[in-house]
Design brief:
Layout (H helix, E strand, L loop, with lengths): L24 E3 L15 E3 L4 E2 L2 E4 L7 E10 L6 E8 L2 E9 L1 E4 L2 E10 L3 E8 L8 E2 L3 E3 L6 E5 L1
Antiparallel strand pairs: 1-2, 3-5, 4-5, 4-13, 5-9, 6-7, 6-10, 8-9, 10-11, 10-12
């Protein structure tokens, strides 16, 4: 792999192990020897970001509930667009958006405080900024608007 020669079987089949790839990567095999080189079709291995979401309720007095929605994106995607969405009928609707920040070498973080008036199913959707990863969403969390301060849920 990556320039390492291998040998095909008598029927022309071959296999090789691919190490874990941190970004979307294209692979192809090129045959060498006398005559025209043989080139395989290109195979693309797509890599999605993994998104976590934690919801914490802050004390509030009034009709809106202050919630902090925070989490991690792995592999790191500094500057990724992070959209908070609520399920309305069968569609995910945008509630608010922010950008991810540096956290650790292998992850980035985000946090946003919102004043929500609707209970419902919420998720976070993160979009890659450099194209090396596919966008992905967190697991949805049921968020009740009213209740005592503290942690609502995480996934």
């Amino acid at each position: 792999i990556f320039g390492v020669p291998g040998v095909a079987s008598a029927t022309g089949t071959f296999e090789f192990d691919v190490p874990s790839v941190p970004v979307t990567t294209e692979f192809r095999v090129v045959g060498v020897g006398s005559g025209q080189p043989l080139v395989s079709e290109t195979l693309t291995e797509f890599v999605e970001v993994a998104v976590t979401m934690t919801v914490t309720r802050a004390p509030s007095g009034g009709s809106a509930t202050a919630l902090t929605i925070a989490g991690l994106i792995r592999p790191a995607e500094v500057g990724a667009r992070v959209s908070v969405q609520r399920l309305v009928g069968s569609r995910w609707m945008l509630v608010a958006a922010t950008r991810s920040q540096p956290s650790a070498i292998d992850s980035s973080t985000y946090a946003i405080t919102l004043h929500l008036t609707h209970s419902g199913l919420y998720r976070v959707f993160a979009t890659s900024v450099e194209g090396g990863h596919l966008a992905n969403s967190s697991q949805p969390i049921a968020v009740p608007v009213h209740g005592p301060p503290g942690r609502v849920g995480s996934r």
